[in-house]
Amino acid sequence: LIAIISDSHDNLDNLKKFINWSLENKIEKIICLGDVCKIETIKYLALSFLGEIFLVRGNACLYEASELKKYQNIKYYGEIGQEIIDGLKIAFVHEPEKIKKLIEYNLDFVFYGHTHKPWLEKNGETLVANPGTLGGVYYQATFALLNTETKKLELKLLGSL
Q1: Which of 56, 69, 119, 124 would you call most buried, defined as having the most Cβ atoms within 10 angstroms of its Cβ?
Q2: Domains of the chain by range and CATH?
Q3: At 29, is the secondary structure helix, strand, or coil?
Q4: Residues 48-78: pLDDT tens digits?
Q5: Which candidate, 25, 71, 6, 111, places its Cα nearest to that of 14?
Q6: Number of C-alpha atoms within 13 angstroms, CB side, residue 96?
């Protein structure tokens, strides 16, 4: 199981609730689509969740890439991340403007953040999704959950966990 989060904007209460839920539900990896913001929030995420964290930079991030090197479980990509996880080709970015080019690569999933609005659409064989905002800014706090065995993606409301 992979959790996809975005735009937590230093909301530690929501991040703690999400991490606790992730640990209880055996989440193996987190894809973070940016706008975690401060390095202290990244530190909390990295030390609280011991699985792999795949991270791209958001427009409101307030840390340097060099500050992330001390966290062994964070894999940092800059603006565009791409991984093959359990045979699924997955790309992830913060800004939606970058997804158009990624769709050309015949991927299974493309995830993006920035808008804070949960979104899901099929583009050819690629499922394009925005998990919304974990921080609960402008919209209810949400994240997405990907079951790599069933290829099922579902949106989770943090407030109803």
Answers
A1: 56
A2: 2-160 (3.60.21.10)
A3: strand
A4: 999 999 999 988 877 888 989 999 999 999 9
A5: 6
A6: 14
